[in-house]
Target: Ribosomal RNA large subunit methyltransferase E
Amino acid sequence: MNKDNANSNSRKKKKSRFDTGLTVTLKKTKGRSISQQRWLTRQLNDPYVKAAQQHGWRSRAAYKLIELNDKFHFLKKRMKVVDLGAAPGGWSQVAVYHKASKVVGIDLLQVKPVMGADIFQGDFTEPHNLEVLLGKLEGKADLVMSDMAPNTTGHAATDHIRIIDLTEQALDFAIKILNLNGVFIAKVFQGGSEKLMLNKLKRSFKIVKHAKPPASRKESKELYVIATGFKGNNSEDKS
Model:
């Protein structure tokens, strides 16, 4: 077997490591709508859901961050991390696992405590919460990450605008709180970042990339922007 074939087979095995090849069907459907039945069936047959339950992650979303980090290697020991929209806490768990020195999360919802992280209830867009986060971090952040998404309407154009708007708010927040050479990671929809936001990212960070981790469902239009090498708060003035 030549090297290219070996690498190809290795990649295939890695992508299918959670695939059991088995299908679970619902035993009880009475009282459940068709959409509820579909959701439950998908959950029962989702290998990432099973893996998360087995390994103690709060949600399957933890694997999205794990896979992004496997590719881009942004999680480092002793980092100070901010988790925007932290519920249910899976991303904060991953940051703690990678030995971040501080992990501070915020969410509109109350989040069950995560050992090693400080997650509080609030709106990150409210100015006073910036000071709260800085106080809890005891300084600025090395990584700001966001897996936030607004409730979808089913209208693709509207949903794209809403997710971009939320990501822009997260970016503006990150620019205020990041250390030099810091990292920003956030969810967007396929189609990538809008031109204005992409321009802001490129002015503020040395490298900007998009990726869809294997844990992201095939039918999902979500995509992640990974921006590394924060240039500093004055970077926009130098464009």
The beta strands are 80-84, 102-107, 118-121, 141-146, 178-189, 205-211, 222-230. Residues 138 and 156 are 40 Å apart (CA to CA). Confidence is low (pLDDT under 50) at residues 1-26, 36-45.
